[in-house]
């Protein structure tokens, strides 16, 4: 197992969580569920789903595709990516080739701008056949074919909310309509073609958070929720032991070191364990505490920056500001703050409407807890990761 930093891991580098993989596969195969994978940031969602896809492919007549749609700017790019992945898995080459050529032509003909309002309804100019006229219909013809065939196909869509945010922000009026239409269409596809197609949706911004912030839960309420958390202390210990064995001769991490690492990170994310391990591996003389401190140096900000960037990307400006205020207060005490303290700091302006701010605090605390920033203990909300708490303290408050 290599000490891979940042990117999702596959194969030998994946620290197996067999029960979780088995439970997920059983939900998908035996209970025919479509899954919404809910987990805090950086917990290992993408790595887990890639493993689930690997396992899925081991069964007879089973294909799995993994699609990261983060880079996609619109529905046409999504369709292009999807068909490309389906083609590579050698599914029904005839219809995939046809869909692919229609989409490629459409990209040349309509470019990116003119799809702005029509979304999946965009006319692709395939007048010859009515069921290939629009982008949505071309994709639907593919799903229909798969559903009538013999192969069981798992489609994992990663970073769905990223695409939804791009669509949402494309136009003040048409953007939200486009998001609803896209989610509506996806829901119809899941429900109509459900014999041979299973779906998993995941993302570093939770789709459930996105849906509740935009009041569109009804468009994803057919999913079964599967939640994933960081390692248990036992898993974390075994994980560090395995890493230690892989770098035998270069580093010795004994049981006391492992216990100390797990105590210091507070919340055993594989990502944070990898980071501490890297520090120990490269600077062999460092103690665990020194490695912890070293990671918080300015040159390593990149490791933690996505946690603050995601807040800006995910929330409206006033909500992002309120989140930052909440986090900047919570980071100052390992035991965090209670709601009244957040209310006090968010209602300092004389014009503040207390009722509205109370509602905002409850909503944002919920989001911050689900995304793994905070954890509620009794009436207080504290940083879940001690590393992130220290980072926040050093970089977000004077
Ligand atoms: N089971 C695992 N075995 C080994 N490393 C893991 C495992 N799970 C996660 N990691 C490590 O944690 C980091 C984050 O993993 P991954 O990208 O899968 O998480 P994620 O939840 O999809 O993150 P994001 O919320 O940013 O999308 C990676 O660098 C990966 O190396
Ligand atoms: Mg991911």
Describe the overall structure:
The protein has 398 residues and is of the alpha/beta class. The protein has 3 domains: 11-227, P-loop containing nucleotide triphosphate hydrolases (Rossmann fold, 3-Layer(aba) Sandwich), CATH 3.40.50.300; 233-295; 313-396, Orthogonal Bundle (Arc Repressor Mutant, subunit A), CATH 1.10.10. Helix content is 54%, strand content 10%. The chain is built from 17 helices and 8 strands. The protein has helices spanning 18-29, 45-58, 75-88, 93-110, 135-148, 160-170, 174-192, 207-213, 233-246, 255-265, 270-282, 288-295, 305-314, 317-330, 339-346, 354-370, 386-396, and strands at 35-38, 62-68, 152-158, 197-202, 224-227, 337-338, 374-377, 380-383. The strands form 2 sheets. Strands 2-3-4-1-5 form a 5-stranded parallel beta sheet, with helices on both faces. Strands 6-8-7 form a 3-stranded antiparallel beta sheet. Strand 7 and strand 8 (380-383) form a beta hairpin. Helix 1 packs across helix 2, helix 11 (270-282) crosses helix 12 (288-295) and helix 15 packs across helix 16. The longest helix has 19 residues, at 174-192. It is globular, with a radius of gyration of 23 Å. It starts with 17 loop residues before the first helix and ends with a helix. Adenosine-5'-triphosphate binds at residues 4-9, 14-15, 17, 39, 41-47, 204, 270-271, 274.
How would you sum up this structure in a few lines?
With 398 residues, this protein is of the alpha/beta class. The chain has 3 domains: 11-227, P-loop containing nucleotide triphosphate hydrolases (Rossmann fold), CATH 3.40.50.300; 233-295; 313-396, Orthogonal Bundle (Arc Repressor Mutant, subunit A), CATH 1.10.10.10.
């Amino acid at each position: 197992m290599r000490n891979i930093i940042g990117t999702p891991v596959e194969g030998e580098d994946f620290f197996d969580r067999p029960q979780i993989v088995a439970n997920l596969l059983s939900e998908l195969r035996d209970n025919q569920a479509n899954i919404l994978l809910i987990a805090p940031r950086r917990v290992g969602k993408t790595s887990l789903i890639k493993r689930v896809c690997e396992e899925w492919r081991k069964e007879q007549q089973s294909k799995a595709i993994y699609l990261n749609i983060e880079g996609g700017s619109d529905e046409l790019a999504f369709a292009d990516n999807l068909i490309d992945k389906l083609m590579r898995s050698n599914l029904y080459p005839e219809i995939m080739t046809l869909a692919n050529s229609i989409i490629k032509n459409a990209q040349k003909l309509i470019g990116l701008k003119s799809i702005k309002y029509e979304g999946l309804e965009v006319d692709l100019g395939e007048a010859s056949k009515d069921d290939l006229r629009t982008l949505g219909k071309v994709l639907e013809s593919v799903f229909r074919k798969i559903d009538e065939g013999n192969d069981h196909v798992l489609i994992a869509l990663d970073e769905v909310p990223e695409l939804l945010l791009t669509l949402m922000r494309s136009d003040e009026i048409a953007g939200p309509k486009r998001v609803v239409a896209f989610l509506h269409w996806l829901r119809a596809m899941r429900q109509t073609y459900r014999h041979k197609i299973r779906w998993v949706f995941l993302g570093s911004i939770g789709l459930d958070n996105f849906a509740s912030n935009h009041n569109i839960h009804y468009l994803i309420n057919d999913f079964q929720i599967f939640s994933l958390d960081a390692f248990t202390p036992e898993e974390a210990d075994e994980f560090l032991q395995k890493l230690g064995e892989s770098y035998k001769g270069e580093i010795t991490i004994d049981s006391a070191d492992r216990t100390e690492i797990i105590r210091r990170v507070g919340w055993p994310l594989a990502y944070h364990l990898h980071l501490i391990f890297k520090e120990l591996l490269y600077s062999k003389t460092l103690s665990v505490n020194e490695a912890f401190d070293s990671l918080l140096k300015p040159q390593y900000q990149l490791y933690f920056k996505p946690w603050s960037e995601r807040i800006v990307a995910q929330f409206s400006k006033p909500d992002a500001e309120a989140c930052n205020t909440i986090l900047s207060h919570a980071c100052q005490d390992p035991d965090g703050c209670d709601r009244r303290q957040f209310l006090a700091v968010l209602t300092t302006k004389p014009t503040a409407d207390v009722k509205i701010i109370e509602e905002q605090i409850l909503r944002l605390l919920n989001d911050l807890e689900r995304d793994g920033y905070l954890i509620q203990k009794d009436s207080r909300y504290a940083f879940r990761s001690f590393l992130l708490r220290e980072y926040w303290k050093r970089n977000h408050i004077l």
